[in-house]
Amino acid sequence: MRDFSWKRLRRPVALAALFAGAGLAGHVLAGPAQRGAEPGPESVTERARQIDRALSATRPPLPEGMPTAKPRIGKPFDALTPGEIGYARWLAVRHQKNPGRRVDGSTGYEFLAAAASAEPGGRKVAVTSYDYAANVQVLQVADLVTGAVTERTGGGVQAPPSGTEQIHALHLLLTSPAGAPIREAYRRSTNRNLTSPAQLDVNAGALLNPPATGDGAACAVDRCVTFQGRVRDGAWLYFGDLAVDLTARTVRVLS
User: Fold this and answer.
1) Is the pLDDT of residue 205 over 80?
2) Residue 191 gets which letter from DSSP?
3) Mean per-residue pLDDT of the chain
4) Lowest-confidence range among 36-45, 77-86, 197-206?
5) What CATH fold (topology level) applies to the domain 82-154?
6) Which residues form the signal peptide (predicted)?
7) Predicted pLDDT of residue 42
């Protein structure tokens, strides 16, 4: 299970973070990439293999190698240590109120983030997750001193997507009929077919302001992800009117 090691999962599998904002218009935002700008076939092939494993393998409840023993507890205002984060996540998993479902269909909550909690008293960590079974974001606050965990849910709140959510969302987008303009823009730019997320550099975010009407209105309740992206080291692609609804496992048009 090396692919699910603690060290590997501290950053998204095979997806590079990019992009300061840019004006978007049309499906290709720059001219064709220069010859040789894209990584070689071996690089893309290895990235594709990593993504295929992320799409098909069953994840354990916690990343392999993540520290879960009670660590030395830091002082107030100290940055959280990896040991404290691992222990907080372990406590959160142990004290889940519901079985939950993650984006890949496995049991549990989809982990999104861990940060120092602003709640008074003791050393506490806020663990944010998403439960696809209930279609809600979950906030668990773990007290590192006592081991107690409180849990509450909320609608209308969307944390940034996890690395696994990004992979699933981009795979759904690229294999859907709605993704045809992106595939065609990629082909025009590179003279290659777009068959894997490994061929793109993308930045993903949760859709925060869905339209009030139309297909995208479902994203006011569902977990939806949007993208900015480009051919690897090449032309920018336009994703702006599409959102991937991970709850319904479909692609929605926002305009």
Assistant:
1) yes
2) S
3) 83
4) 36-45
5) Nuclear Transport Factor 2; Chain: A, (3.10.450)
6) 1-30
7) 55
Q: What's the pLDDT tens digit per position in 26-76?
A: 223 222 223 233 444 457 788 888 888 888 888 899 999 999 999 999 988
DSSP 64-97: BT---S--PPPPTTPPPPHHHHHHHHHHHHHT-S
Please write the tens of the pLDDT for every residue from 117-157.
989 888 999 999 999 999 999 999 999 999 999 999 987 77
- H helices of the chain, in order, are 41-56, 82-94, 163-174, 180-190
Contact 50, 72 (CB under 8 A): no
Cα–Cα distance between 119 and 240 in angstroms, integer?
A: 37
Locate the domains of the chain by residue range: 2-57+161-253, 82-154
Query: Cβ(117)–Cβ(80) under 8 Å?
Result: no
User: Which two three-digit tokens encode residue 145?
Assistant: 């001193």
One-letter identity of residue 6 = W
Q: Report phi then psi at 71, rounded to 5.
A: -95, 180
SS3 content of the chain, % helix, strand, coil (to 5): 25, 25, 50
234: burial class by Cβ within 10 Å (0-12, 13-18, 19+)?
buried
